[in-house]
Design a protein that fits this description.
By secondary structure, the protein is α/β, with parallel strands linked by helices. It is built from twelve helices and 21 strands. The protein folds into two domains: 9-32 and 301-428, Lyase, Ornithine Decarboxylase, Chain A, domain 1 (Beta Barrel); 40-296, Alpha-Beta Barrel (TIM Barrel), CATH 3.20.20.10. The strands form three sheets. Strands 4, 14, 15, 16, 17, 18, 19, 20 and 21 form a nine-stranded mixed sheet that branches. The chain binds ligand LLP.
């Protein structure tokens, strides 16, 4: 399978790839390449799935959009429409979420090492919740004291679950830099309960990303509830909120599960059921339930369009199809050897007949987007579409080799709209000073 087809991502009657009703060849004429393209309907559908199924299967809760997946002002207009809040991890993400008109109360501030400046910015902006690591308790309490503010916090707990994903993307293993190990957390809860400027609402955990199995999530929930029961008994602490992070996977390439909207709904149902069973098992108060999906909201909603340049055929060894982008707009291959699928958007109805690797234009041998994928014979000027690039591409882009970060276009019902302008050479040199 070369792509995860849906009504808003398909091959049209002209044999071209179409996203959000827009023909990719027209998008390229209008905006050039490289180009990030987002399908508004798919992103909206995913927001609705999370918001509605949390309501349907659990009741009181909220989905937060994990800004790190793709952060720009326009995205918040979409997520807000469906009642989602936002998770941010830096002053920059917070600034963008506020500029995107998110209500500060619906923003959760994360990060394993928030700076003083970021905490002050969050407190002064009225951010609803700060998610704390164990070693930040005194630091935050002191800053709140100086500003004369009280703040709602969640403690990030690490249940020690190993989820099946790339080891850089795992976050809740015992040796992780994130969160406090569940075995050490009760002492920190007791500590926070005594801080006059901190109001501990409950706990947060995030076990990893691009996870398809439900089991690790359920194991983590069981571990968390054992802990919730323990702190209730030993400290009288009532958990009012439980935030289970993000992590559900998306389709990138052959071998990945092609999840439907119903599968995501079912994921929320299973999580909700497990939480409810645990509430009953331990006879504890029902916490407000928060989920923080990023990749699954925006990942499959995005594609990247490139123009094919040189094609290098090393006879009998390897064929490289070069594109006008690469690790600067999509560093996931060079970082994680992530797999991607692609097709020629201007000849999308042609059968793939040869095996090629997609080479980026940066001065790094590892600058590839995909290895050994099937394409029809590509030639200079063809348009290459790479799928599932909505998450962790634009947000992880760089200006290496002073390549510009591509613009972002949002498509819906055949209409396209620029939501991030192209970077110019001047933009890249803007902060350089003469000498
Ligand atoms: N909440 C927290 C606290 C997180 O750390 C993350 C992701 C999420 C939510 C959203 O997880 P998602 O639903 O997107 O899986 N750069 C990597 C992904 C790093 C994810 C880090 N945390 C990649 O490109 O695969």
């Amino acid at each position: 399978m070369q792509m995860n087809y849906r009504e808003t991502l398909k091959v049209n009657n002209s044999g071209n790839l179409e996203i959000g009703g827009a023909d990719c060849t027209n998008l390229v004429k209008q905006y050039g390449t490289p180009l990030y393209v987002l399908d508004e309907k798919h992103i909206s559908d995913m927001c609705a799935v999370y918001a509605n199924s949390l309501k349907e299967y659990y009741g009181s809760g909220k989905a937060l959009y994990a800004s790190k997946a793709l952060c720009c002002k326009a995205i918040y207009s979409i997520v807000r429409k469906y009642g989602l809040g936002a998770d941010v991890v830096s002053g920059g993400e917070l600034f963008t979420a506020l500029a995107g008109k998110m209500d500060a109360k619906d923003i959760y501030f994360h990060g394993n090492n928030k700076t003083e400046q970021e905490i002050i910015y969050a407190l002064e902006s009225g951010v609803g919740t700060i998610v704390l690591n164990g070693e930040e308790v005194d630091f935050l309490n002191d800053i709140c004291g100086r500003l004369g503010k009280k703040c709602d916090v969640l403690l990030r707990v690490n249940p020690g679950v190993e989820a099946h994903t790339h080891h850089y993307i795992q976050t809740a293993k015992t040796d992780s830099k994130f969160g406090v190990s569940v075995s050490d957390a009760a002492d920190i809860v007791s500590d926070i309960m005594q801080k006059e400027n901190l109001n501990l609402k409950g706990f947060h955990c995030h076990i990893g990303s691009q996870i398809f199995e439900i089991k690790p999530f359920l194991v983590a929930i069981d571990i968390l509830f054992k802990f919730i029961d323990e702190v209730k008994r030993s400290l009288g602490f009532i958990t009012k909120e439980l935030n289970l992070g993000g992590g559900y996977g998306i389709w990138y390439a052959e071998g990945d599960k092609a999840a439907s909207l119903d599968d995501y709904k079912d994921f929320v149902k299973q999580i909700s059921d497990c939480v409810k069973q645990n509430i009953e098992k331990y006879n504890v108060e029902k916490p407000y339930l928060v989920l923080e999906p990023g990749r699954s909201i925006i990942g499959e909603g995005g594609i990247t369009l490139y123009t094919v340049g040189g094609v290098k055929d090393i006879k009998g060894i390897k064929k490289y199809v070069s594109i006008d982008g690469g690790m600067t707009d999509n560093p996931r291959y060079i970082l994680y050897q992530a797999k991607y699928s692609a097709l020629l958007a201007n000849r999308a109805d042609e059968m793939p007949s040869e095996t090629v690797s997609i080479a980026g234009k940066c001065c790094e041998s590892g600058d590839l987007i995909a290895e050994n994928i099937k394409l029809p014979p590509a030639k200079r000027g063809d348009i290459l579409a790479v799928f599932s690039t909505g998450a962790y591409n634009y947000s992880m882009a760089s200006n290496y080799n002073r390549n510009a970060v591509p613009p972002v276009v949002l498509c819906k019902d055949g209409n396209s709209r620029l939501i991030v302008k192209p970077q110019s050479y001047k933009d890249m040199a803007r902060n350089d000073l003469d000498y």
